[in-house]
Amino acid sequence: MASPLRAVLVDADGVLQFTAPAWRDDVAQTVGHAEVSRHPRLLDEIAKAEGPGTMTGETDLEHSLTRVLDRHDVDLEPADVIDAWHNIELHADVVEGVRALRGRGLVLALTTNQNAPRAAWMHENLPYDEVFDAHFYSCEIGLAKPDPAYFTHVLEALGLAPGEALFLDDTAANVEAAAGLGIHAELFARDGGRAELDRILAAHRLA
């Protein structure tokens, strides 16, 4: 007999929030359009500075950005670039839909890959403390999706069997890794909004 669901694990980017399309413009304005014109690959290299190591806390994002800026002889502090990177907007209707699950007695957990500065910004500026019972930022636990160890850590921390958790994520590799452990894992259409959330919840009789 299948275990009843006790928890919903929710990804952040692409599900609850999205980076506004203008983020590259914001970074370019911070760096300086003249510098961007002088170094056509600069913005791409800035984006790539957020490598896998920054997600697990093994690599310092400011250090990675400093190397990029120094390589192109750009006189700018990495913290200024990071600030421009925090152009996050919420899917407010999805956040409210998730919050409503509290009324069903479900444990709600935020399960997201983030670098340390972005995680700190999210802690301070987004309403997730009011929505979720637990937060699993990859940079804080030293593990990142789709590593199965990430999901094992979450399950153990919450005292859950795999079949007691529903996981929502917009990245197929993450969903496949979770499903491989026996978690009820659903691929969330990226930025699909409330209609996508309602579709998944209805499939699990949570609507």
UniProtKB/TrEMBL annotation:
Superkingdom of source: Bacteria
GO molecular function, one term: hydrolase activity
Sorted UniProt keywords: Hydrolase
UniProt entry tagged with the keyword Endoplasmic reticulum: no
Cited InterPro entries: HAD-like_sf, HAD-SF_hydro_IA, HAD_sf
UniProt keyword annotation of Metal-binding present: no
One family name in Pfam for this protein: Hydrolase
Record PANTHER family: ALPHA-D-GLUCOSE 1-PHOSPHATE PHOSPHATASE, FLAVIN MONONUCLEOTIDE HYDROLASE 1, CHLOROPLATIC
UniProt xrefs under NCBIfam families: HAD-SF-IA-v3
UniProt name for this protein: Putative hydrolase of the HAD superfamily
Organism field: Friedmanniella luteola
